[in-house]
Batch of 2 targets.
Target 1
Amino acid sequence: MNATDRLDVIEACDRFGWYADRRDWAAMTDLLADEVCLDYRALHGGDAATVTGAAAVAGWTTEFAAFRTTQHLIGNHVVALEGDTATCDAQVQATHVPAHGGPPWVLGGHYRMRLRRAGAGWRIAAVTFTPDWQTGVVPSAGEAGSTRATAQAWFDRVCDGAVAEAADLLGDDVEWVNFVGVPGHHDCMPWIGTYHGPAAVLASFEAFTSVCDVRHKELRRLVVDGDQAVGVVHEKGVARGTGVAFEIEYVETLTVRDGRIVRWKSYTDPCSIIRALRF
C-alpha cells in the first residue's frame, strides 16, 4: 500500500465531514465523483440511490438548513487500496443542533466510502452510513424538507453567490416575477420582468450581474407560514458602467411545494440602483 495514497484517501474522507459542517458546498461538489451512490438505509430506511454529485449536494443543503450547526468527528480510518480505487471505513460521531431550539440530535456509527483516483487526488463515489447509537430529537422528513429549510437553503446559496446551485431548488415550471416595472422608467434594469423555468431565471441573474457588481448580500429576516416564505434581503453593490454605489433592501416571497420553489416574487424601491445606473 502506497503511504501517500493512504493519507490522501483519509484526507478526502475527513474533508467530507469538514465541508458539510462548514457548508462549503462548492468544495463538497468538487470532492464527489460525477455520480455518487448514497446508502443511508440503516438510518432512514428507503433505498440506496445513485445520483449526480450536484444532486447529492442539493439534497444535503436542504437537509442541513434545519440545523444551526453540525459537527462530524471522523476517525479510526481503515483503508484498502486496489489500483485506482479505494475503500475507507471510519467511525463517526455527528452532532446536529436544531436551527430553532431543542436538544441536539447526536448519533454515532461508521462510514464506508468508496473512492476513485482523479488526477492527483481522490473523489468519493459512494457513501454508506450505518448508525450504532443515537440520542436526542431526530428530525422528521417533513422538517428536513420544510418550507423553512428550502427557503433558508435558497437564501444561503444566493447570498454566497452560488446562483447555479440555488437554481437547483427551483421547480421545473417556477414562475419568477422580479419586480413589476413601469415602461420608460425602469428600462435600465434589464433583469426585471416575469420568467418561467430555471434556465430563464439564471439568464435574468446574468443580465443583472452584467450591469451590477454585488459586493455584499445578506438575509436579514425570514418569516414562514405554511408553504409561504418571506425573506428581507440587504444588498450593496456598484453599477459597472458608472462605478456608482447602490444600497437597497428588498423582499422576496417564495411558494414552496415538495421542497422546491414554484413561485418567486420580489418587491423593492429601486431608486438607488436606477440612480447608480444612470449617474
Target 2
Amino acid sequence: MSAIHHTLYERFRANWPGYWRRWGHWYLVATLAATADWISTWQFMMDGRIEDELHPAVRLVSHWLGPMAGPLVAKLAQLTVLAVVTATFERYARVIFLVVIFTYSYAAWFNTWGHQYYTPVFARYLSW
C-alpha cells in the first residue's frame, strides 16, 4: 500500500466512528434524493430505452440487470461511495453532500419532466 493510500485509509478509520451521528441527517436527505432519482430513472427507462440514460455506468449496469434493478444497484453503489468519500474527506463533507443532493434532485426532475423540455448542451456531443 502506498503512502497516500495508507494516509487515506487511516483518515477513513479515524473519521468512521461517529460518522452516522455527525452526518446521518445529511446522508438521509441524500438517500431520499437518490431514491427519487432511482424511481424516476426506472420510469424513464420503462417509457423509453436504456440507451437514453446519460450516466454510462448506470446504462451499463441497466443493460446487465434491467431497467429496475440496474439503476437500483448503481444507486446503492453510489451511496456506498458517498459514505466512504465523506467519511474520508470529512472537512468537505457538507459541500459534497450539497452537490450530491442537488445532482440527484436535478436528475429526478430531468427524468420526470425536464427531458420533455430540453436536451442538456453536453448531451448533444455524446456518441450514442
